[in-house]
C-alpha cells in the first residue's frame, strides 16, 4: 500500500526542482511529490509544470539519475 502524499506548497516544489537540477539526481520521494503536484487539483504555475516536465524528460534521456 502506498502512502498518501501531502500536497506540497509552491515554495517546496520550487525548492525540489532547484535541487534536482543542481545535483542532476532525483530520489523516489521527490519523484512522488512532483507527480502528486502534477496530478493534484491545486494549481501549479505554468513555469512549475514546465519545469516538472523537463525533469521527467531529462530522466528519460539519462540526464537526471533516479537514486534511492
TrEMBL record:
<protein>
    <submittedName>
        <fullName>Uncharacterized protein</fullName>
    </submittedName>
</protein>
Amino acid at each position: 500500500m502506498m502512502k498518501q502524499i501531502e500536497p506540497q506548497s509552491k515554495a517546496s516544489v520550487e525548492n525540489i526542482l532547484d535541487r534536482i537540477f543542481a545535483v542532476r539526481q532525483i530520489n523516489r520521494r521527490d519523484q512522488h511529490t512532483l507527480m502528486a503536484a502534477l496530478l493534484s487539483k491545486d494549481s501549479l504555475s505554468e513555469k512549475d509544470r514546465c519545469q516538472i516536465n523537463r525533469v521527467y524528460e531529462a530522466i528519460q534521456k539519462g540526464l537526471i539519475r533516479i537514486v534511492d
